[in-house]
Design a protein that fits this description.
alpha/beta, Rossmann fold, globular, binds FE2/S2 (inorganic) cluster
């Protein structure tokens, strides 16, 4: 069964969102879960994408992705009415949702997309939500309005000071952690390096911290080992054991090393695709 793109729009220079027909996924998905898509056939590259939202009645899911390589660029070039060959999911363990008290939700860059459904569910469960969203600059900040609609407090940071506070997210996170009474939990989703440093901050204050890991994935069934990470010294697979883990137990340095393992090949394939789309007049 293929999956029609019902609408698609650009959120920033390289970030896109689309509503896609996937009735079974829409009914079953829970916050924190993801899908694996392959665009043209079972032979296309398979990439994991978070389910940012779902409408079980319409039978649709909302995906948000950043154009960082060939497949995400191909997806960005697709238009309303086009069809995606395979959408497999929902995959991964759902987020544990309950009323913990006060939760700090920290998002970095495209990490705001997986963070949004989790934040919504935590708010619905009765938690007080303080969100800290960071981006390199104003243009790259996405979903601010969606977070503003559900958060009790929203702090924005940009690396260059073009919007909100000129800081890394770790700065306001530290200040929020110093407050009395202490927050009950922190959820961080973003680039691995950001999650690493946020976890170092929350560890000092002994505040439980959940992270959602965005590793390379191939089969997403726990068999290929592509998504292997080390949690508390033990091997785990993000696709079946995660994607969420106790951030204080993740070996981020190993994860970053593994994420960079295919960078050169990924870049080469992406450059070839960019040349191809330029030739056929897709480049804008
Ligand atoms: S993607 Fe293959 S084991 Fe997780």
């Amino acid at each position: 069964m293929s999956h029609k793109i019902l609408s698609k729009r650009r959120l920033s220079e390289d970030v896109f969102t689309a509503e896609i027909e996937a009735p079974l996924v829409a009914q079953a998905r829970k916050p924190g879960q993801f899908v694996i898509i392959s665009i043209n056939s079972e032979y296309s590259e398979r990439i994991p994408l978070t389910i940012a939202d779902a409408d079980p009645e319409r039978g649709t899911i909302r995906l948000i992705w950043q154009r960082v390589g060939k497949t995400t660029a191909e997806l960005a070039d697709m238009q309303q009415g086009d069809e995606i060959a395979n959408v497999t999911g929902p995959l991964g363990k759902p987020t544990h949702i309950e009323n913990f008290g006060t939760i700090v939700c920290v998002g970095g860059g495209i990490g705001n997309a997986p963070l949004l459904p989790i934040t919504k569910a935590l708010k619905k469960a009765g938690n007080k939500i303080i969100s800290i969203l960071g981006a390199r600059n104003k243009e790259l900040l996405v979903l601010e309005d969606d977070f503003a609609a559900i958060c009790d407090e929203l702090i924005i940071t940009t690396d260059d000071g073009s919007y909100g506070r000129k800081a890394l997210v770790t700065e306001p996170l530290k200040e929020v952690c110093q407050r009395d009474p202490k927050s009950d939990q922190v959820v961080v989703i973003g680039p691995a390096i950001m999650m690493k440093f946020c976890c170092e901050v929350t560890k000092q204050f002994n505040i439980p911290t959940q992270v959602s890991l965005n590793t390379i994935m191939v089969d997403a069934t726990g068999m290929c080992g592509g998504c292997r990470v080390e949690i508390d010294g033990k091997a785990k697979f993000v696709c079946v054991d995660g994607p969420e883990f106790d951030g204080h137990k993740v070996d981020f340095d190993l994860m970053i090393k593994r994420l960079n393992a295919y960078k050169d090949q990924e870049q080469q394939v992406y450059e070839q695709y960019k040349k191809h789309r330029c030739k056929i007049g897709l480049d804008k």
